[in-house]
Amino acid sequence: MADGLCLFSKDSLIIKNPKKNPLVLRMVVLMFVMACGVYICSVCLRQYSARSSEHLLEVQVVERSCEAPNVEPSEKHYVHFPKPKTFSRSECACIPVRYFAILSTQRSGSGWFETLLNSHINISSNGEIFSVKVRRSNISTIVETLDKIYNLDWFTSASKNECTAAIGLKWMLNQGLMQNHEEIVKYFNTKGVSAIFLFRRNLLRRMISILANSYDWNAKLLNGTHKSHVHSTHEAEILARYKPTLNTTLLIPNLRQVDDMVTKSLEYFKSTRHIILYYEDVVKNATKLMDVQDFLKVPRRDLNSRQVKIHRGSLSSQVENWGDVEKTLNGTCYESYLNEDYKM
């Protein structure tokens, strides 16, 4: 009996289940962890993709919303939404901006005219940018400068704020404009830049102003300081005391040269969107300033300037050898310049 029990005990020892292989368990655990990792990564990728799509959609909506309302189809090319690199336009990002350039000649009232435009809260005209020769050394530097101006990244005392609605500059015909007119016309037409021509009808008055300004450049009549423009009657009276003597031999050729240059500029830029103004008309007729504001599509405002006119009254009182000038111009196509053309 005892032997039987013993045998049962031995049999029971023989039939015990073997130990599980630890390598198999590790493989099972590893495969489970890998499966969980793949699942978690797939979930994260789906969420990231969804967020990216939402972000792109938001950006697209913002860009599409920048459309100028009530703009005629023919005017859309001249409406811009610049994105400055140097600052953010913030809430004004979708306020349309017009590009312009004042094309003129020295001593034609362009400085006074520009101060009038800059008195408008929505207009910024950045002055005679291309008076610096390096900026007009070639067409590449000209384009680079223009791009910076029209992208609102050019800062001068005339710069307004992010809500500027018209941005431009003053550009003299002899500052690379005529020499590179083909490329500049192409730039204006491609970029949607409007031209504002401002000239003097009476080129004799312009010549007197140039000679007087050149004299003061050396004489510096105002306490040793040269000023092309003044802001007080007292300063204007001091500068007006000088009476230049005109070279009558070169008088007609010089007048003809300027006249031809003006005529050529109008011919060169006739394909651009433009308006033609004359200094005398702006002085006599205040509605001309309204025409300019309408041309730039900005709200009408009363414009003002602190500049004081230097040469007033009749031309005969402003020239030392007036008698010789009269004899030279009488009977020519420039005889009308001898007459009084406006009062101020």
UniProtKB/TrEMBL annotation:
<keyword id="KW-0472">Membrane</keyword>
<protein>
    <recommendedName>
        <fullName>Sulfotransferase</fullName>
    </recommendedName>
</protein>
<feature type="transmembrane region" description="Helical">
    <location>
        <begin position="23"/>
        <end position="45"/>
    </location>
</feature>
<keyword id="KW-1133">Transmembrane helix</keyword>
<dbReference type="InterPro" id="IPR027417">
    <property type="entry name" value="P-loop_NTPase"/>
</dbReference>
<keyword id="KW-0812">Transmembrane</keyword>
<dbReference type="InterPro" id="IPR052796">
    <property type="entry name" value="Nod_factor_sulfotransferase"/>
</dbReference>
